[in-house]
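Worked example 2:
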Amino acid sequence: MGSLQLQDFAAGWVGGAASVVVGHPLDTVKTRLQAGQGYGNTLNCILTVYRNESVAGFFKGMSFPLASIAVYSSVVFGVFSNTQRLLGQLRHGDASHAPALVDVALASTVAGFISVGIGTPVDLVKIRLQMQTQTYSTANVKLKPTVPGFPVYQGPIHCFRTVLQKEGIAGIYRGMGAMLLRDVPGYCLYFIPYTFFCGWITPDGSISPNPASIWLAGGVAGAISWGTATPMDVVKSRLQADGVYLNKYKGILDCILQSYQNEGLKVFFRGITINAVRGFPTSSAMFLGYELSLKAMKRDQTETNP
């Protein structure tokens, strides 16, 4: 693999780290709203978390995503960019050929499929850590072996090891089907709008988009992608949070049916506001980190090898 291909993976790592730092507090609120009970609305959820757990509650479970989502984003952006180059070579005989809409869609689909293999365990650990201190209350349910409101897991490594020991590989990949249904169309609605808006905003004659264009296009793409992905994101969050205190769901369909029967259609749009709002700054940070670090690496390479 050449240096150009490796640069995409490295730039994706930078973008992923930036997005975690910016977006994790809102991600915690989103997860609590979707998988938890008794919060009511976004503002009430924020106030409840702050009142019960202070500012630190919004950053619960952040260390693991910071280390792992950087790797996850590295794979997503690396696979996406290299798939685009491969399609350009196969379809146009030039790897650097400007990608057509179908090329972006195919590359997004490939990135979505491959990302799930890494992303499912990462999301599961993150959600378990975010959910483990919330009070769980359901009538006529005997909870064992843990007590709600007290930490079940001592940290990300302990969480991963505990889930693996108690639930096996299937437990680590709980929610994988829902994540596939979320991420494959989700990445299409992530990279396609970004490519379109970036090209539309960038002034004619510019070789590459400026930071303001990247920020705006990335933010719009993130809001669109996360907003439309909310229904399946709710299902994924519930499946992955399931098991902290008890197991309620047998699979995707059972989760959908139980959620609908108990809370109605509106449950699948729970957290859509926080998803869309969170999607803007996290995706802006993601694409800015990616594009600017990629530009810096290419500039350094040009200076080193004139």
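The mean pLDDT is 84. The domain at 3-297 is CATH 1.50.40.10 (Mitochondrial carrier fold).
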